[in-house]
């Protein structure tokens, strides 16, 4: 065999080896690891609320982040959801994921705050992340927070530009501080265009009843009342209850709905899709993916991470071409917020 042939075979073998090595994401383990391998495969756990995947809103946005991480970072994933709306059920979901070897474990929603405070103490070597809550301070807990008011401000501008009756509506799932941020931003956006536009507000439930995030019938009733009172644009910040809002808007005709969290135009039924003007995008998918990416790179610290307009943490959907006439106004509003000329209220 010639020297040239031998060198060529060696190069080919080395290329194949490097390709194989790059096909699996591996990260360094802690110095105390006793496996002898010095490497570990990342297994992510995610705990949804009782709606789980398929809510076409908040949970699905988080699920999209997991799916992207599985594809791009080649991590493994385990999923769970609560079987009841209690702290005990949420603790069981988190504990099951951690016991099964998931690290990090991501909790979808502020209702997991109490459970994460308990379970994180039981698993000090596991990193827990919680979306929409910063009340738990621990070395192994990271809060993923979003500037919902900024995205809501932009869709409020759209509502003000689209209304013909100078009257718009807001449906909140549960009367809590988090949803007040959506309301405050929306109202501010509407009034930035025309302070004379009336904004009617309805909440579906109050704590301790958190069922307003999964009650489409209540959403439909609330939206129908707003429309009957004269609103011709209705923004739904109500999780799974938003489908009921869309049904009411579609039935009324000549009325617009604005979705939330994910691009709800893309997942709506054919009957209601044409009436969804836009959606406020809360990029939970980006937050989940970036947290997993940071973990893969070795960031295992607790603390707080904020996702706002500057980092594409919030925004608005452009799937419906009917939004076209209003996009210039929305973009100008976005630039004002980014430049600091507008500080969007949170309450």
UniProtKB/TrEMBL annotation:
SUPFAM superfamilies linked: Periplasmic binding protein-like I (SSF53822)
- Can you say where in the cell this protein is located? Cell membrane
Q: Which residues form a coiled coil?
A: none
Signal sequence bounds = 1-23
- Its GO CC terms? plasma membrane
Domain (ABC transporter substrate-binding protein PnrA-like) ranges: 49-317
Tell me which InterPro entries the record gives.
BMP_lipoprotein, Peripla_BP_I, PnrA-like
Q: Which organism is it from?
A: Actinoplanes cyaneus
- Give the family from UniProt: Belongs to the BMP lipoprotein family.
Q: Specify the protein name.
A: BMP family ABC transporter substrate-binding protein
Membrane topology per record: Lipid-anchor
